[in-house]
Request: fold
Amino acid sequence: MCKQHHKKQLSLAIGALLAGMLTTYSASAEIAVIVNTANSSTLDKTAIERIFMGKMKKFPNGQVALPMNAAKGMGSRDEFNKAVIGRSSSQVNAYWSKLVFTGKGSMPKELSSDAEMISTISSNQGAIGYINSSSVTDAVKVIAKF
Amino acid sequence: MKYFKQSLSALLVSSSLISGYVCADINISGFGSIVAGKTLGTVDDPLNPGQKRDEILTADFYDVGQYNNDFSFKPETMFALQFVADMGEKLKVTGQLVAKGTDDFSPEFDWYYLTYQATDELTLMAGRRNIPMYYFSEFSEVGYAYPWMRPPSNLYWWQVTQFNGLTAMYDFTLGDYSNTVSFFYGNEYSNDNKEMNYYDKLYGGTARAVNEFWTDILGINWNLSGDFFDVRFVYFQNDRDRDTIAQDGSVTVMTPFSQTFLGFGGTVDLAQFTILFDMNMVEYDDAHGTEYPTYLISLVYNMDEFHPYLSYSKADHKRSKRVVKDDYEEHYLMSYGIRYDFHPSASIKLQYDKFVEQGHEATGWAYHGDSDTISIGVDFIF
Reply:
């Protein structure tokens, strides 16, 4: 009985592993990193990465940076993490989990659409986020594209 | 009556003020692991020569979570809820309510501490937290945070993992490198220590309780990270005391001593690979000159959501002031596994562990025994 149970669990796991291996990646869309129109900072890729990893807490002008993430499961989050941070969304979440559960950091706030990202950033001077390039409006300033 | 009305309204006003002030913004998050496993064979019982027993892998020393030949999810399955109440004015309080299979899932607040953000760079924390011993110690129970099923248990074997005290954490940047330096001070009075009780019984003892005290824990933890690496250095010292309480209530007091803990470890990302390592030295100023040199080296291959890995961890025990310096506890653990991130907040892991006992059998130091263990689990955060 016990052994059978064990085998079933194993075959389930192997099934899950194989199913995952067969999943293919979808084509990527261009991501625009956006800030408030009043923000005059210029940031290179490394600086953007450091802000989103909680390692850089202020813009070069001294303003406190408020990074905003797209909600878990949104395509733009996966694209941003791959292009800018160079890791999968799961790896970035794993990185944050060790900080969050030891009191050493708080994960960036999550917003559930490009429109919400634009409205939040246009009303917060220190906010920084990312959206699909096709969603960009005049309400925000694009500082980098990936 | 007028007075009553006035005082009543004063009470209402003040209570509404109080509730407005007290009503904190509470953020709830959590993590957990559902893990099951078993050992695959039997072994000659090193403490009872001539007798066979199931192979045993101690996956969690502190909680005495052990696998034997029965497929079980009790040794490592756990669930934690974290509450962070932001009280404003730079003050937060954090609590982690943890339920573990080893405690029959009865929930306990394992972490509770206040955080005061003194400046943008300086964070002060007071309360109960994990001691930053090994590189993975502070988040050793957050399975989602690392590739393996667990940090190698033959190193994470201490009977004390937490303390009550103060931590001052200072963040600064040097060039492109981010630094966090923490100073910590505290005590741990672990009455009825689970791991020490287990050892007492393992060697035929009948103690009612073993109380383990680590006091004046004082140390520094320095974390340095760049684009492709994160390393940290730790040093701490503390006093050690142990009282063994017999069934008749009589107390045997161990000769106290102090210990020092030194560690250097981290993670390095090289192309598709991640290397994780840790080197540690524990020294007692006891009559034996006890030393525990330990190290870990692990390699992970990252291909999208799949992360196969290898890990080797070695623990040794020496007594530099004795004639026989090296024939005591010794073992290594070789682990092979794969992590698959099947969901943005959950991963499934499959791991095989080969524990090789190298301790001195005649003197009872080979008490773990060899084991082969298979485990499968899902780790998640929310």
Notes: The two ends of chain B are 54 Å apart (CA to CA). Chain B is about 10% helix and 55% strand. Residues 267 and 276 of chain B are 4 Å apart (CA to CA).
